[in-house]
Amino acid sequence: MTEATALLQLAKFSLGVGDRFAHQAKAQLQACAKAATLGVTVIPVWNKSNREHNIVHSEPASVRTAADAAVRALEWKHPYYVDADHINLGTVDRFLDSSDFFTIDVADAIGRRSECVEPFASKHPELVGQLRIAGLSEPLAISRQRVVEIAAKYLSAAEEAGRIYRHIAQSRGSRPFVTEVSMDETDAPQTPVELLVILAALADEKIPIQTIAPKFTGRFNKGVDYVGDVAGFESEFSADLAVVAHAIAQYRLPANLKLSVHSGSDKFSIYASIRRALRKSGAGVHVKTAGTSWLEELIGLAEAGGEALRLAKEVYAQAYAHREALCEPYAAVIDIRQGRLPAPAEVQSWTSGQYTGALRHDQANPLYNPDVRQLLHVGYKVAASMGERYSKMLAECEEPISRNVTENLFERHLCPLFLAER
Ligand SMILES: [Zn+2]
User: Fold this and answer.
1) Which of 10, 131, 151, 190 could form a disulfide with 214 if both were Cys (CB 3.0 to 4.6 A apart)?
2) Which residue spans within 241-394 are E strands per DSSP?
3) In whole angstroms, how far apart are CA 190 and each of 23, 53, 117, 151?
4) What is the rounded distance in angstroms from the CA atom of residue 340 to the CA atom of residue 337?
5) CA 49 – ligand 1 centroid, Å
6) Is 127 helix (H, G, I), strand (E, B) or coil?
7) Nearest to residue 21, comparing CAs of 386, 422, 278, 416?
8) Are strands 81-87 and 129-131 parallel, antiparallel or unpaired?
9) pTM to 2 decimals?
10) Are 322 and 382 contacting, i.e. CB atoms less than 8 angstroms apart?
11) Superfamily (CATH H level) for 3-112+152-291+410-419
12) Distance between CA atoms of 277 and 283, rounded to whole angstroms?
């Protein structure tokens, strides 16, 4: 690790935030500011992926500008970052100047052939046998054959991460940054044993990795709750924490290395599991929640009524009309039951209360409709195509929108994750 990269140290708790149109940074930061006054510092990391930039035709510098302005306005005294989310060698360059956090996405390299599988297994006899790891009740039993199998699947991804990391480090020169490696956008979740082998391989690449985003078991659909075995998730998450702590010591990885939970917004049923596991282990976490804020914009518009409610309905109507194309890039991370989507003509007749009831993530409300929520989640392209008309309305309805953005992040995310039962 170079001295420069050591300078930027991501704190224990951090929250990935963001919105499609760069209007909500202040309202998002307000949620972190509220948590800070209650004694818990959660560092905001504004993230936006290349895919989002392409869909709404924005540039990475706009995220930096919005984040800087929010920090100035609220006089935020703690660190904050701008994350080049899910970048690869082909897309990273336009983020190099404005980002100081890079999420290196190597999911596509999983399963690719690597020349170095056998040498890797020979270099790592410590991975073989009965591994006693603090925090795990049973030792991990790993054969050399298993190490070879895991390396055959993941080594090329670690090598690719190394190439991308070195490209960023070289281009940024003395400007420090935080490095995350993500493998979440793939079919099969990674087990704790696989995570250990992956961390050994990333250490071999000399990547000063501060956050790692594995794919966890269960469905992490966009904007809606976790679907899966909650108890199973809790034991997997705890085992991952134990493996990360072990890898930090074993492979001299940065001491603050922590797990990153992608599509982490709205996963209400696993927040208590995450909170308990963090308390027990003393570990930190990064939780990405960017998508949820765009839905709060729509809720704020609907709440405002009149012209703004009509616009929110128009977004739904167009999203419904173009649902196939909008869902296509997100197919792996949404589960929409078409039959549960109301026809646009029906939505036309909705009051503010009916629209916000359907969209707001309150599972106790009988009006709540997770299918509407997921469709609108991927429907931001519709708002982007409205251009000025949409952004003007955002400015006009700033009060109800920012109130909903802040409340959503604070009450439904920061509180259950970090503040409950203190
Ligand atoms: Zn992700």
Assistant:
1) 190
2) 258-261, 285-288
3) 36, 29, 18, 12
4) 6
5) 9
6) helix
7) 386
8) unpaired
9) 0.96
10) yes
11) Aldolase class I (3.20.20.70)
12) 8
Among 243, 121, 98, 111, smallest CA distance to 177 is for 98
**Element at 83 (helix H, strand E):** strand 81-87
Helix (H, G, I), strand (E, B) or coil at 49: strand
**Could you read off the pLDDT tens digit of each residue along the chain, which spans 422 residues?**
444 444 689 999 999 999 999 999 999 999 999 999 999 999 999 999 999 999 899 999 999 999 999 999 999 999 999 999 999 999 999 999 999 999 999 999 999 999 999 999 999 999 999 999 999 999 999 999 999 999 999 999 999 999 999 999 999 999 999 999 999 988 899 999 999 999 999 999 999 999 999 999 999 999 999 999 999 999 999 999 999 999 999 999 999 999 999 999 999 999 999 999 999 999 999 999 999 999 999 999 999 999 999 999 999 999 999 999 999 988 888 999 999 999 999 999 999 999 999 999 999 999 999 999 999 999 999 999 999 999 999 999 999 999 999 999 999 999 999 999 75
State both tokens at 60. Answer: 């990475």
Q: Which residue has the tokens 């281009």?
A: 171
- Ligand 1 center from residue 86 Cα (angstroms): 7
Separation of 114 CA from ligand 1 center, angstroms? 24
**What spacing in Å lies between the alpha carbon of 350 and ligand 1's midpoint?**
34
Ligand 1: distance of its center to the CA of 112 in Å? 20
The packing angle between helices 230-251 and 268-281, to 10°, is 40
Pairing, β 140-142 against β 129-131: antiparallel
Please tell me the distance from the alpha carbon of residue 333 to that of residue 329, in angstroms, as a whole number: 9
Helix or strand or coil: residue 161?
Answer: helix
CA dist 261 and 266 (Å) reads 12
Question: How far does CA 246 lie from the centroid of its chain?
Answer: 24
Domain boundaries, the chain: 3-112+152-291+410-419, 294-403
Q: Which amino acid is at 174?
A: S
Pairing of strands 13-17, 285-288: parallel
CA of residue 213 to ligand 1 center, whole Å: 8
Q: Please report the beta strands in 88-185, taking only residues with DSSP state E, as ranges in sequence order.
A: 101-105, 129-131, 140-142, 178-182
Between CA 356 and CA 337 the distance in angstroms is: 20
